[in-house]
Specification:
This protein is of the alpha+beta class. 20% of the residues are buried. It starts with a helix and ends in a 15-residue tail after the last helix. The protein is built from two helices and nine strands, in the order H-E-E-E-E-E-E-E-E-E-H. The protein has one domain: Jelly Rolls. Strands 1, 2, 3, 4, 5, 6, 7, 8 and 9 form a nine-stranded antiparallel beta sheet that branches.
Length: 173
């Protein structure tokens, strides 16, 4: 009788954990046709995104993003490690302490957490953004001092194009 009671108690205690584990082990399919693209808070409106897996506000996630030509996400850093996988288009990612990376269709880039970087879409970009923790964004000024999203996005919108640069085609990619 005790054995049966112990087994029943164990089933009651561990059944939810087993069901959760099974739910997380299921295949996730997100069709392009059914993906809903929206603007995310604190990001430029030239970037729309659709969550493909996970919950970016709570933990790891995969996001499908679309950035318009000339879209710039100003200097910023994330608490999480970030991975970018270019589906289509051309972009430039600059790191404060490293050489810029020019991304093309099919390219992959891994960005370490808490390292300031800037993303510039040169030709209509579609990319997957994978994060190993909850998504956050901390904008910084030219000196690396943290600034508000409003300040960063307003400054980037007003920034003049570099002298001699007629359009994004002039960027060395």
């Amino acid at each position: 009788m005790r054995f049966a009671a112990c087994c029943l108690l164990l089933m009651v205690l561990f059944a939810p954990a087993i069901q959760t584990a099974r739910a997380e082990d299921k295949m996730v399919y997100a069709g392009k046709a059914t993906s809903k693209f929206v603007n995310f808070p604190s990001l430029p409106t030239c970037l729309t995104a659709s969550v493909q897996n996970g919950d970016p506000s709570k933990g790891p996630s995969v996001i499908l993003g679309k950035a318009a030509t000339r879209c710039v996400i100003p200097w910023h850093w994330h608490t999480a490690n970030e991975q970018l996988m270019m589906v289509s288009g051309t972009a430039k990612v600059e790191m404060k302490d490293g050489a810029p990376a020019n991304l093309h269709t099919g390219d992959y880039l891994s960005l370490p957490n808490k390292n300031a970087h800037q993303f510039t879409c040169a030709a209509a970009c579609t990319l997957f953004i994978s994060s190993d923790k909850a998504f956050d964004i901390h904008y910084v000024d030219k000196d690396g001092k943290e600034i508000s999203a409003d300040e960063a996005l307003k400054a980037k919108a007003k920034a003049p194009m570099k002298k001699g640069m007629k359009d994004m085609k002039d960027m060395k990619m």
